[in-house]
């Protein structure tokens, strides 16, 4: 099972790929895309972002912006990846399930 | 089932104008997904047709609409267009209308269409192509006593048409309204012969419209009107001219 960091890394790759495609189709310069890159630096319109989010929603079958995350809080590629990570795993990136860890420890003790 | 022309989503396609629109799209080789609150003999007759999908859905239930669209795409394939057709009449003097009737009209005529447009526009953005056609009414552009809520919902829909057309145009998505005048349908079945006669006399073309004529306009906008967006096309025999 993937942990939240693995999920986020996969989502980050998808986002960067999607953004590069949109920039290429609009004949915009493809700068170095990194997780810290802000969407405002990329000359993308709000409609381009809507298209990006529609494509991500189709790929991951989850809409984190319906309840979990406010779209206005998304500034960087990393923010968008974090939103989908939350939508997919139900947990923010890098969180540990304390209860699962505790159960695992108990199981180990009883063996 | 996948088809080359794609799937058209129609709200309220189980009877009347909605079913006529569905039938014409089917005749043109599209697949059709539609929903309404209750079934009719029309949808029962098409139950075994793999090009047609009907489900009982309350359009004001966002989650139910989401699931309907997911199922429609799984069964019929890529969604290429939306016809927001579902509507109920809300007749009466506003000061004496029940608030529950007002709420119901707002839910069916407006809220459901906004929800559906939001959900389907995501699919169209993925395609960078497609259309939304809102079935409005001449009541949205002309006043008439006793239909203030119905008029309000249709005028609101026309407002959505114009703004959404500007919002989505850059991605190749067209949004238009079609505003029928009086035509033979359940909406006019309770009017007296005297009233219908007056309407015909006030109509330059001297008769009521037909569902087929309105459906043909919808089909034209969908399949031929590639440079038409943000418009409200009135089809009323000249009643409002």
Write the layout of secondary structure elements.
The complex is a heterodimer of chains A (111) and B (241).
Chain A: H1 4-25, H2 46-60, H3 77-89, H4 98-110
Helix pairs in contact in A: 1-2, 1-3
Chain B: E1 7-11, H1 16-27, E2 31-36, H2 41-45, E3 52-56, H3 62-76, E4 79-84, H4 99-127, E5 130-135, H5 148-168, E6 173-180, H6 193-202, H7 211-223, E7 232-235
Parallel strand pairs in B: 1-2, 1-4, 2-3, 4-5, 5-6, 6-7
The CATH superfamily name of chain B is NAD(P)-binding Rossmann-like Domain
Approximate shape of chain B = globular
By CATH's scheme, which homologous superfamily of chain A applies? ACP-like
Count of the separate structural domains of chain A: 1
- Helicity range of chain B: 40-55%
Number of separate strands of chain A: 0
CATH class of chain A: Mainly Alpha
CATH topology of chain A: Non-ribosomal Peptide Synthetase Peptidyl Carrier Protein, Chain A
Biased composition (Basic and acidic residues) (chain A): 94-105
Protein name (chain A): Phosphopantetheine-binding protein
Pfam families (chain A): PP-binding (PF00550)
Region (Disordered) (chain A): 91-111
If you had to describe this structure to a student in words, what would you say it looks like?
- Chain A: It comes from Pseudoalteromonas obscura.
- The complex is a heterodimer of chains A (111) and B (241).
- Chain A has 111 residues and is mostly helical.
- Chain A has a single domain (4-110), classed as ACP-like (Non-ribosomal Peptide Synthetase Peptidyl Carrier Protein, Chain A), CATH 1.10.1200.10.
- Chain A has helices at residues 4-25, 46-60, 77-89, 98-110.
- In chain A, helix 1 (4-25) packs across helix 2 (46-60).
- Chain B contains 7 helices and 7 strands.
- Chain B has helices at 16-27, 41-45, 62-76, 99-127, 148-168, 193-202, 211-223, and strands spanning 7-11, 31-36, 52-56, 79-84, 130-135, 173-180, 232-235.
- Chain B has a 7-stranded parallel sheet, sandwiched between helices.
- Chain B is of the alpha/beta class and 241 residues long.
- In chain B, helix 1 (16-27) packs across helix 7 (211-223) and helix 4 (99-127) runs parallel beside helix 5.
- The chains are: A mainly alpha (111), B alpha/beta (241).
- The A-B interface holds A 45, 47, 50-51, 54-55, 57-58 and B 122-123, 125-126, 128, 167-168, 170-171.
């Amino acid at each position: 099972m993937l942990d939240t960091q693995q999920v986020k890394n996969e989502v980050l790759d998808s986002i960067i790929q999607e953004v590069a495609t949109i920039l290429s189709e609009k004949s915009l310069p493809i700068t170095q895309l990194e997780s810290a890159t802000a969407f405002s630096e990329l000359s993308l319109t709000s409609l381009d972002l809507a298209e990006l989010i529609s494509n991500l929603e189709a790929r991951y079958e989850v809409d984190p912006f319906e309840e979990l995350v406010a779209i206005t809080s998304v500034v960087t590629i990393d923010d968008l990846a974090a939103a989908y990570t939350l939508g997919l795993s139900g947990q923010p990136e890098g969180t540990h399930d304390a209860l699962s860890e505790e159960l695992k420890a108990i199981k180990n003790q009883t063996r | 089932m996948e088809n080359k022309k794609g799937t058209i989503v129609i709200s309220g396609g189980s009877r009347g104008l909605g079913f006529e629109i569905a039938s014409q799209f089917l005749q043109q080789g599209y697949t059709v997904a539609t929903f309404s609150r209750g079934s009719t003999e029309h949808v029962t007759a098409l139950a075994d047709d793999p090009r047609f999908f009907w489900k009982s859905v309350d359009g004001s239930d966002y989650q139910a609409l989401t699931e309907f669209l997911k199922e429609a795409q799984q069964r019929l394939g890529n969604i290429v267009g939306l016809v927001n057709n579902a509507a109920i009449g809300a007749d009466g003097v506003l000061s004496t209308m029940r608030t529950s009737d007002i709420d119901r009209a707002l839910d069916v005529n407006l809220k459901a269409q906004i929800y559906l447009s939001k959900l389907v526009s995501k699919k169209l953005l993925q395609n960078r192509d497609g259309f939304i056609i809102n079935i409005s009414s001449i009541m949205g552009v002309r006043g008439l006593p006793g239909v203030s809520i119905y008029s309000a919902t249709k005028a609101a829909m026309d407002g959505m048409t114009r703004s959404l057309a500007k919002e989505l145009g850059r991605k190749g998505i067209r949004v238009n309204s079609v505003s029928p005048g009086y035509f033979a349908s359940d909406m006019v079945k309770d009017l007296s012969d005297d009233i219908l006669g007056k309407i015909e006399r006030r109509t330059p073309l001297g008769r009521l419209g037909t569902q087929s004529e309105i459906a043909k306009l919808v089909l034209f906008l969908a399949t031929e009107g590639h440079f038409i967006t943000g418009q409200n096309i009135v089809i009323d025999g000249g009643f409002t001219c």
